[in-house]
């Protein structure tokens, strides 16, 4: 199996998922995927002048590049995966971590931020909006750590967010062209699928997964107790076990097909 790890953001590099890769320790090869123009994947040889014209359909290119691909999408990365129906025919498995089936999580998030104000975020956001540089985007992300992580992991989360490459152009493209109009374009009916939700995720509400449309026989939903938007940081053992079960499900399907 080839595991393709797609980060959230956008505008945040796939380095944000390094701890997830180490935690799940899945068999096969693990690949970090940055869409063209995102994270550190900038100015690649042969890349188009406007790489965002390829989003999110370019995900098919990554899936077709390897045998038995399993896509793992975190946050907005999962939304991009659910926006490309053609993936259903070429994946061996799918894992959706801290993501959502539509954009109705955004008003919930905005309500949370009003009730849990972080002056550092407000200042950094004002600065970013007036001068949208990569470094200013980094500061917004770093200051938001108390929303992303449980209290006892905020310090570690802050270190993680501070070390990442950021890409303001990617964030701007998604805000203008994707985020608020997002609705999943497909749902797998036979593909082994895992949903991982932190019970204390304050960024993307995980209550949207209660809809029975997403409880197909091929789908497992694991709610990780006490975990936030990066659930492998607070509860690595539980996240590891969830992925181990997905590996078993994929193996069983390959054996019976």
From TrEMBL:
Protein's name according to its UniProt entry: AB hydrolase-1 domain-containing protein
Coiled-coil regions listed: none
InterPro entries per the UniProt record, alphabetical: AB_hydrolase_1, AB_hydrolase_fold, Carboxylesterase_BioH
Source taxon at top rank: Bacteria
Residues passing through the membrane, by range: none
GO MF assignments: catalytic activity
Protein species of origin: Mycobacterium kansasii ATCC 12478
All residue ranges annotated as the AB hydrolase-1 domain in the record: 4-242
Any Pfam family matching the protein: Abhydrolase_6
């Amino acid at each position: 199996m080839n595991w393709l790890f797609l980060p959230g953001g956008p505008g945040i590099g796939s380095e944000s998922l390094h701890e997830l890769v180490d935690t799940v320790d899945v068999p096969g090869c693990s690949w970090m995927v940055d869409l063209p123009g995102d994270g550190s994947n900038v100015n690649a040889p042969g890349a188009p002048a406007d790489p965002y014209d390829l989003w999110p359909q370019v995900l098919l290119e990554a899936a077709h590049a390897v045998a038995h691909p399993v896509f793992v999408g975190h946050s907005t990365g999962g939304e991009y995966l659910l926006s490309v129906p053609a993936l259903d025919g070429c994946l061996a498995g799918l894992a959706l971590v801290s993501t959502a089936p539509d954009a109705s999580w955004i008003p919930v998030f905005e309500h949370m931020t009003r009730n849990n104000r972080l002056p550092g975020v407000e200042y950094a956001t004002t600065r970013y909006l007036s001068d949208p540089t990569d470094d200013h985007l980094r500061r917004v992300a770093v200051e938001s750590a108390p929303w992303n992580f449980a209290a006892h992991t905020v310090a570690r989360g802050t270190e993680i967010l501070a070390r990442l490459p950021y890409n303001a152009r990617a964030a701007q493209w998604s805000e203008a062209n994707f985020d608020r109009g997002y609705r999943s374009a497909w749902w797998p009916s036979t593909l082994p699928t895992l949903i991982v939700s932190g019970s204390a995720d304050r960024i993307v509400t995980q209550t949207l997964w209660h809809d029975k449309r997403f409880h197909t026989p091929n789908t497992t939903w694991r709610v990780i107790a006490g975990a936030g938007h990066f659930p492998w940081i607070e509860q690595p053992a539980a996240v590891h076990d969830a992925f181990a079960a997905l590996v078993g499900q994929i193996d069983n399907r390959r054996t019976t097909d």
